[in-house]
Amino acid sequence: MTTEIWIIDDERSIRDSLSQTLDIEGFMPKTFASAKEALSQLDSAFEGVIISDINMPQMDGIAFLNHALAVDKEFSIVMLTGHGDISTAVSAMRGGAYDFLEKPFSTDHLLDVIRRGLDKRNLVIENRELRRELEQQSAPGPRILGNCAEIKQLRRTLSYLKDKESPLLMQGERGTGKELAARFMHDHSERQDEPFISLKCRLVPDSGIEQELFGNPTDTNTFSSKHGKIFSARKGTLFLDGIEALPQATQRKLSIALRNTVDMPRVIASTRVDLQQSARLQKFDQSLYEILSSITLHFPPLREREEDTYLICQNFLRTTASRFGIAPPNLNADHKAKMAQYTWPGNVTELRNFAERWVLMGEEQALSESVTSEENDHTSLAERLTKVERSILFDALNRHNGRLKEVQQELGLARKTLYEKLKKHHLDKESFKA
């Protein structure tokens, strides 16, 4: 166990005795000689149990209880009382204390009360996180989908870090959702009304990346040009995708800016490589790595989130179909099994593209390109184009129930051309009629 248990008592012998007992049992005891001292360090993020004596000078246990419950009315606070103070302890419980311990008490009773108090506090915190997560996932804007343990923890961490000022690093394979997560943090933060600017470092030539970031520096301030991304995003968020692609001279300049310049945006960087190894091999600036890596988030590949693939695919199918005003395809057990067998090297990005192909080009084309095989397609360009053309025709005929005039209008084909293509691909309009 690593949860803190606070002990508040003006008698040192009581503090030491309880602290030793809890330490032996694997807890993390923290002692306070006065209620005021404990109150000055207490906030609503506290996850443990507080044990407080009732009779103390300056601020007694009842006053502490009232002040503490004003910070968080669901703290687990246990009152210590002597035989003559039972009525006071009962009143304290009516006022919001979790329980009380009458001196003298056995170690077993003490541990039982603490464990129950911890269970209650953990449940409170878990429910709050679930409510907060539900609110964020129901709000407009990007959502982080998934039910696996890693993604649940990632969502909690993103929510906790969203309003922090410090830079952070997102590490994961291509397509694992790093930019989506950065947008999620921005959209749910105090910066949501300020700019979110994304710069794909791999796509900007080395000769132009410094000007892209910093603009044309003035003589008075190297980083204040109004034409650079840093200035444009200064009160918002700057997302640097593929930061390992920055030239080392630019890395050093960015490191100086992050350390010394005021009015910097919140910088979130992403990478597909092991930056620690790159810094060790002097392929990445050590100073910049130290700044960014103080907070590092790891994004698991989709192949390690097998239970989430089906959920995410369903979401992509629904949103794509809604965008184009058509009914979403239905997934069955066979589809689910095929998706589970595939390793999705392009991760969530590949899954989204797969879902969009399914909606727009039909199941046959989507499955043939993504899920039925991971082997390289050695067919010729002409053969691939033929497959795509047949899939488009098949999907249009299916959506229009075989009505050729509507298919002709949608695809922009002359009547003769449409008939020729139907004959070429062995498609009969009658088989599509409802």
H-E order: EHEHEHEHEHHEHEHHEHEHHEHHHHHHH
Please identify the structural class as seen in this structure: alpha/beta
Cα gyration radius (Å): 30 Å
The shape, in one word, is elongated
Would you mind describing this structure in some detail?
The protein is α/β, with parallel strands linked by helices and 434 residues long. Helices cover 51% and strands 12% of the residues. It has helices spanning 12-24, 35-40, 61-71, 86-94, 107-138, 149-161, 178-187, 206-214, 229-232, 248-260, 275-280, 286-292, 306-324, 333-341, 347-361, 363-369, 381-399, 404-411, 415-424, and strands at 4-8, 28-32, 49-53, 76-81, 99-102, 168-172, 196-200, 237-241, 266-271, 296-299. A five-stranded parallel beta sheet has the order 2-1-3-4-5, with helices on both faces. Strands 7-8-9-6-10 form a five-stranded parallel beta sheet. The radius of gyration is 30 Å and the shape is elongated. 29% of the residues are buried.
In short:
The chain has helices spanning 12-24, 35-40, 61-71, 86-94, 107-138, 149-161, 178-187, 206-214, 229-232, 248-260, 275-280, 286-292, 306-324, 333-341, 347-361, 363-369, 381-399, 404-411, 415-424, and strands at 4-8, 28-32, 49-53, 76-81, 99-102, 168-172, 196-200, 237-241, 266-271, 296-299.
